[in-house]
């Protein structure tokens, strides 16, 4: 058994697609209509056959509440690995990404947290 898809709730799939592709650099893998919404997945540019990130509509009341509570408490919903967090931080800031935590060393790792503009905080990590 292996992980093939993981998801995050988003307020607006189209806005999320734009942010995750244009700002973060992910690549759209699947975009399939499913009624009112879409099965919309992304992959890392350097792992086109890798784990997919599903941009899941937060339509269900429990999803909205979960997403809002995590955001309000400053808890990232997921993390993405980067090889050079300081360069990635600089690149994203230049693209207008708003960080709630600049790169911070924590033992053997360095983390930073940004707002994805779609209702989530996302953590990047350099191990």
Key features?
about 130 residues; alpha/beta; 2,3-Dihydroxybiphenyl 1,2-Dioxygenase, domain 1; 4-stranded mixed beta sheet; 3 helices; 8 strands; about 40% strand
Write the layout of secondary structure elements.
Elements: E1 5-10, H1 13-23, E2 27-34, E3 37-43, E4 52-57, H2 61-72, E5 78-81, H3 85-94, E6 99-106, E7 109-115, E8 121-126
Parallel strand pairs: 1-4, 5-8
Antiparallel strand pairs: 2-3, 3-4, 6-7, 7-8
Order of helices and strands: EHEEEHEHEEE
What percentage of residues falls in helices of 4 or more residues? Answer: 25-40%
Q: How can the largest sheet be summarized?
A: 4 strands, mixed
Ends apart, CA distance between termini:
25 Å
What is CATH's topology name?
2,3-Dihydroxybiphenyl 1,2-Dioxygenase, domain 1
Approximate shape: globular
Low-confidence segments, given as residue ranges, are: none
Oligomer state equals: single chain
Question: How many separate helices?
Answer: 3
Number of domains: 1
**Strand fraction:** 35-45%
Number-wise, the strands total 8
Largest sheet, order of strands side by side? 1-4-3-2
CATH architecture: Roll
Name of the CATH homologous superfamily: 2,3-Dihydroxybiphenyl 1,2-Dioxygenase, domain 1
Structural class: alpha/beta
Mean pLDDT: 97
Radius of gyration (Å): 15 Å
């Amino acid at each position: 058994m292996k992980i093939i898809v993981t998801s995050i709730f988003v307020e607006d799939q189209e806005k999320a697609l734009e942010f995750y592709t244009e700002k973060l650099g992910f690549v759209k893998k699947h975009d399939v209509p499913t009624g009112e919404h879409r099965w919309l997945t992304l992959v890392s540019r350097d792992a086109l056959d890798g784990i997919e990130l599903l941009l899941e509509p937060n339509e269900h009341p429990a999803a909205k509440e979960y997403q809002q509570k995590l955001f309000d408490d400053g808890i990232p919903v997921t993390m993405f690995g980067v090889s050079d967090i300081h360069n990635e931080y600089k690149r994203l800031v230049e693209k207008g990404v708003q960080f709630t935590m600049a790169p911070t060393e924590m033992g053997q790792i360095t983390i930073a947290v940004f707002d994805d503009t779609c209702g989530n905080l996302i953590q990047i990590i350099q191990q």
